[in-house]
Every structure is written in structure tokens, then in C-alpha cells.
Amino acid sequence: MTTDFLVVPILYMQGLTADMNKIVEDNVEVHSRTAKAVAICEAARMPEKNQSTEATKMEISIEERADTEIKVVSAPLNYLAEATPKPVNYAYDPPAGVPRRTGNYIAQNVDIRNGREVLSKLSLDTNGFVLTEHETAVKDFYDPEEVKSVYYLEVERLIKRVTGAERVLIFDHTVRNAVLAKRGEKGARRPAKMVHNDYSLKSAPRRVRDHLPEEADRLLSNRFAEINVWRAIRGPIESSPLALCDARSLSAEDSVPTDLINRDSVGEILGFLYNPQHRWYYFPRMTPNEAILLKCYDSKDDGRARFTAHTSFEDPNSPPNAAPRESIEVRALVFWAPENNLRQDA
Predict the structure, then answer these.
(1) Residue 48 pLDDT greater than 60, yes or no
(2) In angstroms, what CA-CA distances link 119 with 45, 127, 282?
(3) Which residues contact 333 (CB under 8 A, 6 or more apart)?
(4) Rounded (5°) CA angle 10-14-15
(5) Burial (0-12, 13-18, 19+ Cβ within 10 Å), 249
(6) d(Cα 113, Cα 279) in Å, to the nearest integer?
(7) What is the mean pLDDT of residues 15-44?
(8) What's the average model confidence in pLDDT over 187-193?
(9) What is the rounded distance in angstroms from the CA atom of residue 119 to the CA atom of residue 96?
(10) In angstroms, what CA-CA distances link 169 with 90, 111, 152, 186, 226?
(11) What residues contact 256, with CB distance under 8 A and at least 6 apart?
């Protein structure tokens, strides 16, 4: 009788313990599921900045993967090795004993992508350059009067069409032909073979004051840009093509203000230090019915392309008997209508 009395409580306690263990296990499982749910919710509530950063990384990653499918050439480009002392370049042959340019330049091998394979993805405000078809009525690009009377108007219409600008002022052009430059004929210059941009933060506004002094204050209060239009005089171009650096890959720390000595003035351009992040493109075998629009300055500082490094280079695919490059670049000041900042009532 005593034994039966003890067995019943023991069995009861064993059952109670089993129930308690089950409750604990269930609670642990519930807490585990809750923790996972909280983690998922927290991830969903990630700050927009982090989301934007991740999206940017993903975009760059996708672009890099896409670039692996683009044909590339590897070629050396001439970069500045250091930023000081301030380099000096002459736009003409200087007096005897004066170097045409100062500064220590080094050749860096880079991959240069075929821009023809990504034409639809390029834009002036994103990359800093575009290629477009453009017919011309000019018969002789080495005749400065014909260029000014015919070609300037053609380029003005082209820039307005591509950019939507209100006003375009073409103020300068350069023809490049190494053979003629060597003989000192037709005002031709050699292709420029160092990485550069035609204007700096200092010299771009100065151009407006130089050419439009009475209107400068008003024009400089609104958005303006300096755009070059580059084309082949004869083609297809087989040697010394133009390489262009995607503006998104440039950093302010890469640029080096450089004095440009002209016969009647001193300007300022930008040289560049090498950065492995630079992404280069070119348009092989350009013909005379094509034109590159290249943005060398934009006053709008909102993340869009403002400068575009560029240079000619020796294309390893050029044939042994390649014809010397003949090209013309026209420089233009580009102005947009004042932006309407007034709040519109709903």
C-alpha cells in the first residue's frame, strides 16, 4: 500500500516534467522563428543610402561583366607622373631651347574598349561623349574661310539638336595632320598624344568672358558648357585614333591644372594622373560622315559629366602602311535657357 502511494506522485511528476520540456522546446522554436522574421524585416528596412550603394555596386558589376564581351585593344597612354611643379604646354613650336612641354609623363598600358559596340548606351551627360552620323557640305577643311562660313553653321545645328541648347557660339577650330604639321603647312597640328581635357574650372568661364564680355555675367549665371565636335577629314581613320575616358571613372584628384601657352595668350587645361579605375573607349575606323561630341566642361555640378579626358593613341590594329590621321575639331560654347525655379501651384 505504501509503495502504490509513492508510485502515483512519481508518475505524475514525470509527466509534468515531460510537458514542461515540451513547452520549453516550443518556446525556443518560436523565439528562433521570431528572430529570423525580425532579421528579414530589418533587412527590408535598410536605409535608402545603403540600398543606393548596393544598387550602384550591382550596376558597376553588371557593366564590368558586359565590358568583358566588348572588343578591346591594349595600348600605352601618356599620363602625368606627378602634379607639381605645374606643367606647361606650348600650342605651337616654342623658341629654340624651350621644351614644347614640361612635366614628367609616363606611358601606362590601358584597355581601350570599342565604343561602337555600346553606342546606344552612351550619352553626353553620363559618359561625356557620343558618336553620331553627320553629313557636311565642306569641300576643303584646310580652307579656314570655308570652315567658318559652312562648317560652323553645320556644327551649331548639330550641337543644338543633340543637347537641346538655346545658343551655340563656335569660336575656334584645329586641323590635325602630322605630315602637314611637319612641313608647317595649312596651319595643321600634330595629334595630341597626352591625356588631357581642354578646359579647367578656371579657364572655362574665362572663355565666355573672352568671347562675350558684355553678356558674360548674365550667361555665367545659367548653365553653360564647352563642347568639341571631332571628325575625320579623310577616312577611314587608320592611325592615331581618339581615345575617350568615361567621365564617371574620373576623380577630381586625377586632374592636374596645366598652363597652355598660345602665341597671344596663356590658357589652362587639365592633365591627368593615372588611375586604374579609368575606363577608356574609342571608335575605330571613323569616316568623314561621323562626328564625336565631346564635353570638355559643364557648369552644372549635379553628378553629370563635367570633364572628359581624351588623347590620341597608337592603335595596335593599325596596318603597317596606315595613312596619317587627318581630323578637325571645332570648339563651341553652349548655353541653355535659364531654368525656371519658381514653384508651380498644383
Answers:
(1) no
(2) 38, 11, 11
(3) 168, 169, 171, 207, 208, 211, 212, 224, 225, 226
(4) 120
(5) middle
(6) 8
(7) 44
(8) 95
(9) 45
(10) 25, 35, 9, 24, 10
(11) 80, 83, 86, 87, 270, 271, 272, 273
Question: For the segment 288-313, what is each residue's pLDDT rounded down to a tens digit?
Answer: 999 999 999 999 999 999 999 999 99
Q: Which three cell numbers stand for residue 133?
A: 552620323
Rg (CA), the chain: 31
Taking CA atoms, 259 is separated from 21, 92, 193, 203, in Å, by 83, 13, 16, 10
Residues with Cβ within 8 Å of residue 60, at least 6 apart in sequence: none
Res 65 pLDDT > 90: no
- Bridge partner list, 167: 335
Please name which of 185, 138, 192, 178 lies closest in space to residue 322, comparing C-alpha atoms: 178
Buried b (16+ CB within 10 A) or exposed e, 64-100: eeeeeeeeebebebbbbeebeeebbbbbeeeeeeeee
Residues contacting residue 167 through CB under 8 Å, at least 6 positions apart:
334, 335
pTM attached to this predicted model: 0.79
Strands 255-261 and 88-90, how do they pair? parallel
Q: How far apart are CA 77 and CA 244, in angstroms?
A: 11
Is the pLDDT reported for residue 20 higher than 60? no
Query: Tell me, what amino acid is at 65?
Result: R
**Bridge partner list, 113:** 72, 281
